[in-house]
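Good morning,

Attaching, inline, the C-alpha cells for the sequence recovery test we're adding to the shared suite. The designed sequence is right after.
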C-alpha cells in the first residue's frame, strides 16, 4: 500500500492527543505535575472544535484522545467538545483518572458513544491509592464509582473499548523517589498476577461472567511476568495493561544527564500532541511543551507539520539521530554505560520489538 504523507509525517497516525486542560483533581506522586512550570489553563472551546474539524477533514488519525496532562472531564465545555467530535464523525478516546465516573461526569458520559475509554487506575488497592493524594475521595468510593459506571456504560455501549491501566513499579526511578519518597504499586510477578486476578474477578462479577471464559482469562493472567509490558484481554473489548513507572524524560533528575547520541521514539510516528495553549509537540511525554514546533492559534496543522523545523527533526529520526535538544535529554542517561547502550536499546525495543507485539496483541 502506498504511503500517504501530510507534511513531513505519515498518516493516518494511531492517535492525536488533545489536551483540553492540564488541571487535575489528583496529585499523584509519580506524575510530573509537581515539576510542571507551564501555566494551568483550559483550551478555548472554539479552538478545540477547529482542531477537531481539521483533523477530521484531513483524515490525520485513527482517533483523537483527550489526554496529555490534566483530567479532560474538568474542562467546562467537555461534553460540548465531545458532541462536536461525534457530530463530525471523528472517533474519540478518553483517558481519565476515573475519579468523576461515579458522579455527574459518569452519568453524562452515558449519553455519548466513545471509541475507547482508558481508566488510569494505576493504584489498584487502598494502600497504593494513597499515592494519588485525592483528598476527600476514598478508595472504596473510587472503586465502586468506576465499577458502577463500567457496568452502566458497557450495557449501553458494548462496542466501546475499555482499558484499565495499572502501574508497574518493578523498576524504581531514583529521581522520582529522591523527591517524593518510595513509589510501590505492583513490584513483583506475584503481585501482578494477584492484582489482575482480583480486578478480573470484579469485572466478571459486574458482568455476571462465569465458566470457561472466566477460567481462560485467569489462565492467561497466570502466565504474566512483571519484567515486561503486559496487555490482557479479560473480556471482549476489555483490557488490562501495565505501564512501567518512568521518569518522564529525566524530568525528576536534578543531577547531570548525558545527552543521548542517538535513539528512536514514536513521536510524530504514531502520535503527536496539542497542548491546551495550542502548542503542537512531538509526543505525549513532553509534559512541559519543550518540543513545540508551532501553535494552532497562529497556523494550521498542515502548515506546522510541513515546516522546515519539523522536516529536519523527522530527517534525523529516520537516521536514528536526535535533532531537538529536549529529545536528547529525554533519551539521555545518568551514567556513561547507560549513555552508550540506551540508544541502541531504544531502537531495538521501539523500532523492532514493539511493532512486533503491536501486530500480535490488540492494544488500541
Amino acid at each position: 500500500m502506498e504511503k500517504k504523507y501530510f507534511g513531513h509525517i505519515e498518516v493516518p497516525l494511531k492517535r492525536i492527543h488533545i489536551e483540553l486542560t492540564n488541571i487535575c483533581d489528583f496529585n499523584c506522586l509519580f506524575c510530573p505535575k509537581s515539576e510542571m512550570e507551564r501555566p494551568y489553563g483550559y483550551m478555548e472551546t472554539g479552538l478545540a472544535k477547529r482542531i477537531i474539524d481539521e483533523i477530521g477533514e484531513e483524515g490525520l488519525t485513527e482517533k483523537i484522545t483527550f489526554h496529555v496532562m490534566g483530567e479532560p472531564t474538568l474542562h467546562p465545555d467537555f461534553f460540548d467538545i465531545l458532541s462536536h467530535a461525534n457530530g463530525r464523525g471523528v472517533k474519540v478516546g478518553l483517558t481519565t483518572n476515573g475519579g468523576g465516573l461515579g458522579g455527574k461526569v459518569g452519568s453524562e458520559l452515558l449519553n455519548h458513544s466513545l471509541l475507547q475509554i482508558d481508566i488510569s487506575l494505576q493504584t489498584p488497592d487502598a494502600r497504593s491509592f494513597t499515592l494519588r493524594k485525592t483528598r476527600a475521595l476514598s478508595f472504596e468510593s473510587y472503586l465502586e464509582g468506576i465499577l458502577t459506571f463500567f457496568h452502566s456504560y458497557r450495557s449501553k455501549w458494548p462496542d466501546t473499548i475499555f482499558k484499565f491501566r495499572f502501574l508497574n513499579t518493578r523498576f524504581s526511578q531514583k529521581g522520582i523517589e529522591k523527591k517524593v519518597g518510595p513509589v510501590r504499586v505492583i513490584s513483583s510477578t506475584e503481585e501482578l498476577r494477584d492484582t489482575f486476578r482480583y480486578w478480573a474477578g470484579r469485572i466478571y462479577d459486574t458482568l455476571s461472567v462465569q465458566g470457561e471464559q472466566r477460567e481462560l482469562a485467569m489462565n492467561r493472567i497466570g502466565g504474566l511476568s512483571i519484567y515486561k509490558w503486559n496487555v490482557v484481554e479479560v473480556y471482549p473489548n476489555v483490557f488490562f495493561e501495565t505501564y512501567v513507572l518512568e521518569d518522564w524524560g529525566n524530568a525528576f533528575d536534578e543531577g547531570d544527564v548525558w545527552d543521548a547520541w542517538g535513539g528512536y521514539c514514536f513521536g510524530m510516528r504514531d502520535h503527536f500532541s496539542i497542548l491546551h495553549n495550542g502548542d503542537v509537540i512531538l509526543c505525549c511525554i513532553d509534559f512541559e511543551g519543550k518540543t513545540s514546533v508551532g501553535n494552532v492559534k497562529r497556523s494550521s496543522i498542515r502548515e506546522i507539520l510541513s515546516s522546515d523545523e519539523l522536516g529536519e527533526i523527522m530527517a534525523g529520526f529516520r537516521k536514528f539521530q536526535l535533532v531537538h535538544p529536549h529529545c536528547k535529554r529525554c533519551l539521555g542517561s545518568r551514567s556513561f554505560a547507560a549513555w552508550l547502550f540506551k540508544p541502541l536499546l531504544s531502537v531495538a525495543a521501539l523500532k523492532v520489538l514493539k511493532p512486533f507485539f503491536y501486530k500480535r496483541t490488540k492494544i488500541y
